[in-house]
Amino acid sequence: MTVESCTLITETICQGISVRTTNHDELSPQSAKIGSLWQHFYQNHFNRLKPNSDLYGIYHNYESDALGAFDVTASWRVNDYQGDVTAIDNLETVIIPTGKYLIFSESGEMPGAVINAWQAVWRYFNELDCRFERRYDVDFEHYVNESQVDIYIGVN
After folding, report:
1. All residues at 6 or more sequence positions from 68 whose CB lies less than 8 Å from its CB, including other chains
2. Torsions phi, psi of 133, nearest 5?
C-alpha cells in the first residue's frame, strides 16, 4: 500500500449505474449492495466499453461522513461507451470535480485489493495526527488494471 502526497486532479465526466448504501450495510452480505452493483456492471455494460477503458467506482452524494448514506456509481468515462446510452435505464452521469485528492494505491487480486485499500483509507483518516481533512464530496476508485486500484480521497 502506498499513499502519495496531495495531488490536484482535473474534472472527469463519467456515466454508469448506481446504488445508495452505507458502510454499515456493506458489512453484512444480506444488506451489501456494492458487490451486486459491480456484478450487474460486468454482466450488462463492460462488454460495450472501448478496449482499455478506464473504470471508476465513484462515491458521492454523501449524507454526512463515513457513518451516513452515500451513492456508489460503477462507471466509465462518457466517451468510452460503444453502446446506445439512451437505451440504458437508470444511467447516471457523475462528475469527478477538479480538486485535491490523496491517492491510496493497492495491488493484488480483486476485490481483496480494493478492500485493503479502503481499510488503509479509514486507518489513515482515523490517525490522531492526520494532516488532511476529508471533504466527503466525491471520492473514487480508479481501476488501473486487473490487479491495481488507486483510491482518490477528496481533501480540503
Report:
1. 22, 62
2. -115, 130
Q: In whole angstroms, what separates CA 78 from the centre of its chain?
A: 16
- Mean pLDDT over all residues of the chain? 91
Over the stretch 52-81, which tens digit does the pLDDT of each residue have?
Answer: 999 999 999 999 998 899 999 999 998 888
Neighbours of 86 (CB within 10 A): 6
Written as one letter, the residue type at 76 is W
Q: Is the pLDDT of residue 4 over 80?
A: no
Whole-number pLDDT of residue 68 = 94
| Phi and psi, residue 48, nearest 5° | -100, 5
- Classify residue 127 by its DSSP letter: S
List alpha helices for the chain, DSSP H: 23-26, 34-44, 112-126
